[in-house]
Design a protein that fits this description.
disordered N terminus, five-stranded mixed beta sheet
């Protein structure tokens, strides 16, 4: 999806488990050939015409003894060598090292040096190492303290959703193996601009800065189902509708900075509104499936972090996509 009117560009994602991206190798073979042919030519024989001398009266000659004829050694005739055409060898083949094209919004961090323990949801040193790895891979939690608390459950659930694993929030053998071998930080679809990206298909929220995803959170968006519920601000009145988190490009247009607020359909924590009464807000229930009436739920500590780090200021772009 290209977001032309906002300067945002979105590309499709490469989801892994273990890590890593496609490559094209170009091989070129070239050869040249030449040939020279040598030619052996024989000149025509030369004919010498000898005219007879005129007869002359000479005194009788004294005949000297005739010496024995000298025997000359005749060398065999030399056969000229033919000039053969030069042998042409194909040019050496140069094989370039394969190159891997990495998308602009991908940051490779490599695999972990040692495997992780399948801790389930236990506290301890093994959990502290898992928390560190989750932070390295971009899944926010409140810190590597070894306490398998709410934010660790949410970070593990986000990691499992990102990899397409069963999102239990517990570190089983499969999750531990992926934590060790997944080589890159999590990222959304957007690869340009500053925005909050809500991926309804994967139920994840990404904070994007200059096209790079800096944090990934577990979220729960609308169910897509009809509802008939009492208005919490108008007892005795009921609201009817369909639970929808609207797709599109929006902007944060109002917010409530402190504590809990009573929404028409339930309590919400420190909301950031981007479309009518639809907001990103804190909640005490962020399951591994869509559960809201339309809002985008985060854990209360995650919402506090977003406020404290000013990750969703007023007029921030919010891009919602997915089924």
């Amino acid at each position: 999806m290209t977001l032309e009117h906002t300067g945002l560009r979105a590309t499709g994602r490469n989801l892994l488990p273990v890590l890593l991206a496609g490559s094209v190798v170009a091989l070129a073979l070239s050869s040249c050939s030449q040939s020279d042919s040598g030619t052996v030519s024989a000149e025509a024989p030369v004919t010498v015409n000898v005219s007879p001398l005129p007869a002359t009266s000479l005194p009788p000659a004294t005949v000297e003894p005739t010496a024995a004829p000298t025997t000359e050694t005749t060398q065999p005739p030399t056969t000229p060598l033919l000039t053969l055409p030069p042998t042409t060898l194909p040019a050496p083949t140069t094989t370039e090292a394969p190159t891997t094209t990495v998308a602009r919004n991908v940051e490779v961090v490599g695999i972990a040096a040692t495997p992780f323990e399948a801790v389930g949801s236990r506290d301890g040193e093994a959990t502290r190492l898992i928390q560190e790895r989750l932070l390295q891979l971009g899944f926010w939690n409140s810190g590597a303290d070894g306490d398998y608390g709410l934010t660790t459950v949410q970070a593990v659930m986000a990691f499992q959703k990102y990899l397409g694993l069963e999102a239990t929030g517990k570190v089983d053998e499969s999750t531990a193996a992926y934590l060790q071998n997944f080589p890159e930080r999590a990222h959304g679809t957007a690869d340009t601009g500053d925005l909050v990206e809500v991926d309804k298909d994967r139920q994840l929220l990404f904070i994007v800065r200059d096209g790079m995803t800096i944090w990934t959170f577990n979220t729960s968006t609308a169910t897509g189902l009809p509802y008939h519920e009492e208005d919490k601000n108008s007892p005795g009145e009921f609201q009817d509708g369909v639970s929808i988190t609207p797709n599109g490009l929006w902007k944060v247009n109002r917010e409530r900075p402190e504590g809990w607020w009573e929404g028409d359909l339930g309590q919400i924590y420190r909301p950031k509104y981007f479309r009518g009464g639809v907001a990103v807000h804190g909640s005490n229930s962020i399951p591994n499936y869509p559960a809201s009436h339309g809002c985008v739920r985060l854990s209360v500590p995650a919402m506090d972090f977003i406020w404290d780090a000013d990750l969703m200021p007023m007029k921030s772009v919010v891009w919602v996509h997915g089924a």
